[in-house]
Amino acid sequence: MRKLAFISFISLLFSVFVLNPTLTVAQSDITGTWSTSNRAPKPPKPPKPPRVPAGDIDTPEAPEPPEIDFDKPSKDPDKIYLSFERKTEHGQNSHGMSYAYGDIDGLSKGQVQSGGPVSFRIVREAGTIEAQGNFANGVGNGTFRFVPNMSFVSAMKQRGFDFEKSEGKGNHNDTVEERLFAAATIGVTTALADDLRSANFGDLDVGDLYKAAIFKIDGKYMAEMKATGFPDLGMEELVKARIFKVDADYVRQVKDMGFTDQGFEGLVKFRIFKVTPEFLNELRAAGLDKMDAEDIVKARIFKIDADFILQAKAEDANVTMEELVQMKIGVRRRTK
Q1: Which end of the chain has less Cβ packing within 10 Å, N or C?
Q2: Rounded Cα gap, residues 218 and 242, in angstroms
Q3: Range(s) of the domain holding residue 114
Q4: Last residue of a domain, one of 160, 188, 214
Q5: Comparing C-alpha atoms, which of 32, 55, 335, 17 is closest to residue 185?
Q6: Are residues 25 and 171 in the same domain?
Q7: DSSP letters of 190-238?
Q8: Cα separation, 158 vs 273, whole angstroms
Q9: Mean pLDDT over residues 176-193, rounded?
Q10: Phi first, then psi: what are they for 213, rounded to 5°?
Q11: Closest among 192, 179, 172 to 24, alpha carbons compared
Q12: Which of 52-61, 73-82, 155-164, 301-310 has the lowest mean pLDDT?
């Protein structure tokens, strides 16, 4: 499966490393193979909350983000998922994205459905991908060549993003051409750079551009999160928020539920465990009106619903969340 491991929120899906400055004058094209199938497998689901041993009812930590495709195959009939693969000295390197047919010069939905030889181009600011191949039964494959646009390097440098700068060790995108190829496949543009800069979120680097393009983070989203009471979120937190679908509307929902001091990680935990106003109202209607955030998360983790609460209250009107959890996991100890 063409997936990139999200080892930590500090790691980059497309980061930039170890560049010899003389490469700016030694341009070379990148070649490889492409393939596609609109019947691509579904991306993996986020991990389930960790199991809790009997007697241990501390709230589990929110799971780390799942291993994910940086862009899953689109269900939009007007888009097609293309994966570009090439061999490097580090092994196989794959980039996959969903592209609108309108953004591909020379390839239509009709050609994909009817099959036959194809020749198409994807023209981006960072360079042009030229591809040839064949389609049969909705599945295509062939070869490609990427022609980098070196003027994009200077345009981005003027905006404070240096595609020639070394940022560490161990990354596969270790030439300026490979960095431009990554930028082209995911759609990094000067407009995106300008937009992010206008949001006044401090210093950003090329890796942040990649993340912003992949996870659809723009200046508007940054500003909305900032306005909700989180002025210091960095790109890593914004990526995390996008993965777990934390936006300004959800922040307001949580505050409307009466939780104003959750902090960013608390919001993420609420989102992961599907804490909603409807669920909270259900618990309150069942008689649990004195709950903190941890109690609500426990109720969601251990699947404690209104029916279970009402049954427990029939035996003990003062039953606590801790006791409810003990009942749910088969340990009927009571707090004295």
Answers
A1: C
A2: 11
A3: 21-38+73-214
A4: 214
A5: 32
A6: yes
A7: HHHHHHHHHTT-----HHHHHHHHHTT--HHHHHHHHHTT-TT--HHHH
A8: 43
A9: 94
A10: -70, -40
A11: 179
A12: 52-61
Cα-based distances in Å from 261 to 84, 264, 277, 315: 45, 9, 16, 34
What is the rounded CA–CA span in Å between residue 236 and residue 130?
Answer: 33
Residue type, 325: V
What percent of the chain stands above pLDDT 70? 76
Residues 159 and 34 occupy one common structural domain: yes
For residue 110, tell me if it sits in a domain. Answer: yes
Locate 221 and state its tokens. 């989203």
pLDDT of residue 92: 78
Q: How many CA atoms lie within 13 A of 289 on its CB side?
A: 3
Element (H, E) at 294: helix 293-301
Strand order through the sheet with 139-148: 91-100, 79-88, 30-37, 139-148, 127-136, 116-124
Number of domains making up the chain: 2
